[in-house]
Amino acid sequence: MAKTPWGRRLTILVPYLWLLAFFLLPFLIVLKIAVSEPAVAQPPYVPVWDSFGAAWAHVRAPDFSNFAFLFSDPLYVNSYLNSLQIAAISTVLTLLVAYPMAYGMALCTPTWRAILLTAVILPFWTSFLIRVYAWIGILKTEGLLNLVLMSLGVISEPLQVHLTPTAVYIGIVYSYLPFMVLPLYASLEKLDLSLLEAAADLGAKPWVVFLRVTLPLSLPGVAAGCFLVFIPAVGEYVIPELLGGASTQMIGRTLWTEFFQNRDWPVASAVAVLLVLVLVVPIVIFQKVAKQGGTG
Amino acid sequence: MRRGPSPGLKVLMALGFGFLYLPIVILVIYSFNESRLVTVWGGWSLKWYRELFANQGLIDAAQVSFLVAAAASTMAAVLGVLAGLTLARVPRFFGRTLFSGMILAPLVMPDVIIGLSLLLTFIALSLDRSILTIAIAHATFSMCYVAVVVQARLAGFDRSVEEAAEDLGARPATVFRRITLPLIAPGVVSGWLLSFTLSLDDLVIASFVAGPGSTTLPIKIFSSVRLGVTPEINAIATILIGLVALGTLVWSLSLKRATARAKRARQG
């Protein structure tokens, strides 16, 4: 082949340079500010990126005091652990709600499949913020849930759900449900129903068929769905802020407070760097699981 | 023989879909409530819509948001098409692994990190925070969605169509305009629409990179929601939901018609 035409080179270069400038470079800057001293990087913020030489000198003599600070204060350690726990529990809950929906959809006629698929995707197109906000009106003390339960006589005093971890779980399950249903449906739809019939004909009870045939075959979808729910849920800000309030200290909120209220940029950057490191591990595990599921 | 879901499964499905739609339905109904309180039904009324259109702050924020979304989604469509073409059609070039990593990473990266890192970059580059910085930030994560959609669409098409055009002497630009672009057009439109709604929806990243005078609708909504439920927000939420539902309906109908026409053309 002749040398690469300039048009093709531009095709590669333009998005490449854009991502380098607005995705990779920002990352390096965060890393750099995370290892710089607060005095240098605190507002009014003297630019620390004066030259590449100076920047490199900083990197070579990094100051890890911001990270030491994160580990010395239980607030930060707790918010990391809290985020991981809340994200893990919500992921399992989302799976439990989504699996019957996806399985049922896969068993439907093609017309119903198309309708239900649109019904799952549609909320994804409506505002996330508004969908979280909708729950405030339902869950708050003088909200709709308490109104209904009290008029039915189920409870005599209003339940406190809004501003508790329960509200955060509801919010995450609700917001991320489509992300779990879609990959589950994609893997269940390909399921060969004759396998289920074969198992049933050989005398397996329905739940045995489910546990031994359906569930194992849908594992790639389970892995993909959990990945799509767990990773963003760990860094979630809007849901704990609006539904959890002071009751749930998740890492996204901690970073936000550190940046907007305490105005401590180096610590906020250090929180961000650690959050990425925390997320790298589940990303690698999930990718491995998905790959094994795909080939096995 | 296909039997369909069992009754028990149907109940679970109904509960799941009910859970998905009930809050939205309640929100829409209460936007027409005369009373300010959620617990009191004061009769049907358009009161909150009137108050909404009298609220200049919200109107301004909506204008900023639509401007940002239009700019960001157009940039994202161009960049995303180029990136998708590169991923689908150029098997080997320097730094390909890094490139595909940078396309996939923003899809799962928490918003707080993207927002913080971009803000620090804009400061380092001494770019003033404005509508432009929000648009750049939104274009950056949206282009990755467009790239993935375009790549998926190109993966389903035969490379030989483009090669045939090249063999017949068409220049690369002509091949792109006459062959590739029409093939990926539905993906580009979907990607543009997705970018538009993602931009219109984003609160966290915009909060970091917005400056004074570039308050977007989500930032405005968020600050009033923090103070409690206000019926005006119900009204604006209903309008947004209506727009999205309408857009999705029009787009899916036009897609259906296009597919039907293509089918007829092939048969005829």
Give a brief rundown of this model.
The complex is a heterodimer of chains A (296) and B (268). Chain A is built from 15 helices and no strands. Chain A is an all-alpha fold and 296 residues long.
How would you explain this protein's 3D organization?
The complex is a heterodimer of chains A (296) and B (268). Chain A is built from 15 helices and no strands. Chain A has helices at 6-34, 38-41, 52-60, 65-72, 74-107, 110-125, 128-139, 144-151, 165-189, 193-201, 206-217, 219-234, 238-244, 251-261, 265-295. The longest helix of chain A has 34 residues, at 74-107. The relative contact order of chain A is 0.13. Chain B has 268 residues and is an all-alpha fold. Helix content of chain B is 78%, strand content 0%. Chain B has helices at residues 7-30, 47-54, 56-89, 96-108, 111-124, 131-155, 159-167, 172-201, 204-209, 217-225, 231-267. In chain B, helix 7 (159-167) packs antiparallel against helix 8 (172-201). The mean pLDDT of chain B is 88. At the A-B interface, helix 1, helix 5, helix 6, helix 7 and helix 9 of A face helix 1, helix 3, helix 4, helix 5 and helix 6 of B.
Distance between the termini of chain B: 35 Å
Order of helices and strands of chain A: HHHHHHHHHHHHHHH
* Cα-based radius of gyration of chain B, to the nearest Å: 23 Å
* Strand segment count of chain A: 0
Number of helices of chain A: 15
Oligomer type? heterodimer
Mean pLDDT of chain B: 88
Low-confidence stretches of chain A: 39-56
Helix/strand class of chain A: mainly alpha
